[in-house]
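Bench notes, afternoon.
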Amino acid sequence: MGSLTKAFTAAAILQLQEAGKLSVDDPVNTYIKDYPNDRVTLYHLLTHTSGIPNYTNSPDFLKSINIKISVDDLIAKFKDKSLEFEPGSRFSYSNSGYVLLGAVIEQVSGQSYGDYLNEHIFTPLDMKRSGYLTKDNNYTDIAVGYSLITPDISEIARPIDMTVPYSAGGIYSTVQDLYKWLLGLENGTIISDASWEAMRKPNLDEYALGWGIPDPMGMVYAHNGAINGFSSEIWRDMSQGTAVILLSNAEGINLGDMRDVLLRMLDSEE
């Protein structure tokens, strides 16, 4: 699913806050002990306002994209780099921030990222076809991803080990399971009403906690995802009771156009 993963990571952080195990206002180095900057908070990570450079933009990122990596070694790729701006002053999308959030989840919960999500999100919502995708498991029914060379010609996408995108993009799912996810957020199964409201309160650039919020009233929440071989998008309008969930095994395609067509179809049926 690529970056649709981020909302799951954000919800896990909010669950741990509700349990009194952390606060989103805490500095990152409260939990990542050797993290060198005490000005960056969990909230900055959640809202992409930390100033931490995005490790997926590094020139050498693609060289090791299919090599399994530990969380500590992944963080080491960007930990000592200078901030690009003062935390909280700007929005700049950073997968690095969500990798740090995954490490915090593991540190605070005492569970691996995948195990935490299984116990606290996937199982309660009966999301039986969702999980954190690792090579350690034997999957027989995962779609093959493709890269489009031209609109008519494609090839199997370059493989990627999901420890590389980790808690910023390593989850797999289905359309049906993702609909359960949306309902679970909205009906209070996963997080409290107060946390759900906070999750949809936008900061800079209409981004809240793991969701983009294109509607100032917070009734619409959305996100897209892109990863080797796959593209994804969620658009949920609670005021209309509509949801568009798109998962494609073609890399780099514009799902926004398809979403807009589907939304117009929904509007025409009213």
